Amino acid sequence: MFPVKAEGEREQLRPGDAQTVLIAGAEREPLLQAVANPFLRAAIPDLAKMAERFGSVCTGGFLLAALGLLDAIESRPTGIPARRLPKAFRGMVDGRLWTSAGVTTGIDMALAMIAHDLDAIIAGEVAKRLILYARRPGYQSQFSPLLQAQLKGDSPFADLIGWIQANLAAPLDVPSLAARAGMTERSFHRKFVAATGQTPARFVEIARLDAARMLLSRGLSLKSVAAQVGLFPPVRLTEAFERRFRVAPRLFRDMHAEF
Fold this sequence. Notes:
It is a single chain. The longest helix is centred in the last third of the chain and has 17 residues, at 200-216. The two termini are 24 Å apart. Strands 1-2-4-3 form a four-stranded mixed beta sheet. The protein is of the alpha/beta class. Helix content is 53%, strand content 7%. Keywords: DNA-binding, Transcription, Transcription regulation. One of its GO terms (molecular function) is sequence-specific DNA binding. InterPro entries: Class_I_gatase-like, Homeodomain-like_sf, HTH_AraC, HTH_AraC-typ_CS, INH-QAR.
């Protein structure tokens, strides 16, 4: 751990200079020290008033709450005892206030800010450049083609892709998907590969595993995740997950779940 020092001073800032002010999270003791720090108790509310938008990532919300900046907002960032703040939350937007309940959801919040300030297409391109789904080294060799396909607004399969995502537990074989697309199986297979760069079977597996990873990061059981994403029984999910991400789903959940 080492301090990061800013080049400027708070007194140099004028209203409008600080467009976005975010309070990063920390462990319990540093947070309590920050709450007791006279300079921070004065500086953070001042900066929040000046900013066009303010908020927190993960347990940084505890500091906002302690300084009265979450008054009338029911929230409890992860890692803070329930008795200290009223109600658990994963993230919210309320006027100028933006909060993210976890570290990784802070990335999602940043992309949401880009979409809000600019547009969804730019946010999508930023996500691709960040290689969002590979942000934890070793778990994925390339960015999910599912999102890449969705970013192509003129894709002939945009609606079908959305339906696949919403029905991962359903039978998603070529005959079923071709019938839904109103095509013969041969024509569907050829056109789908041309549009997405993946066979239908491979695309569905990637969609299921991407969803499984998201659900595991929320702390759900393997049995529940396997059922929700159409990879039941759990041994089937485990085999596919390890093959794609080179890590067991149970270990991934234990390492990255945001409770």
